[in-house]
Amino acid sequence: MQIIEVISEHQPIGLSDIARRTGGSKATVLRTLTTLRDMRWVEQSDTRDATWSLSFHAYAVTARAGLGVDLRDIAIGPMNGLQLDTRETVHLCVPDSNCLVVIERLDTPHVLRAFLALGTPIPLHASATGLAFLGASTDDFVEGVLKGPLEKTSGQTATAPESVWKLVREARERGYSINEEGLSDGITSVGAAIMNSTGAPVGCVSISGPSSRIVSSKYEEYGTAVVRTANEISGLMRGRR
Q1: Is 176:193 a contact under the CB 8 Å cutoff?
Q2: How deeply is 37 buried, as exposed, middle or buried, from its count of CB atoms within 10 A (0-12, 13-18, 19+)?
Q3: What is the pLDDT of residues 105-164, one digit of tens each?
Q4: Which UniProt keywords apply (predicted)?
Q5: Class of domain 2-62 (CATH, top level)
Q6: pTM for this prediction
Q7: Any idea where the domains of the chain sit in the sequence?
Q8: Measuring CA to CA, which residue among 102, 134, 133 is closest to residue 208?
């Protein structure tokens, strides 16, 4: 599993690099890679460097499993509506350990836009989706996240626990989060949490775009829209279950 995770993050990647990142010997890693290749989970390039990547089989297995894909299927309609209303990029994220992962993105027609590739891990403290997720979580969960390392991903990232707590409390008060260039320089986002039937967050949806377009005068309009979308997705998900 460590090898699969390393390949997914760094593909295409060579044997020596995989061994270094997993702490295993080349011989052991090669035996595992050979088994994974025989099971169609990974594939090796025909190039001289003979790098390894995940196969389409691995993606297919992932696509058939878990809440994330089910949530994506449910969310795509409301997300389309949000994208048409705001004409900005819309992201859907789900939790994975102490971060979120992008599982769907609807792009803006504008040339200048926010972009996060599908599968990108998103830090909870540095993103609109992450702050919305923390705002909908328990205090104990937030405290646990803030005890870990808080990476600085842009010039404006809040990394002091008290600063992140302030953003979380503001998100709770207004019902949506605002992230001004905390994840990427020049990009502002507005996010809201998707809740299950027990009142726990299971994902987040956000609007993202250049800070020159998503200005403070639009925060309330976009915040209302993203909350409405998150609530619609929450309702549809509870109905599906």
Answers
A1: no
A2: middle
A3: 999 888 777 878 888 889 999 999 999 999 999 999 999 999 989 999 999 999 999 999
A4: DNA-binding, Transcription, Transcription regulation
A5: mainly alpha
A6: 0.74
A7: 2-62, 66-240
A8: 102
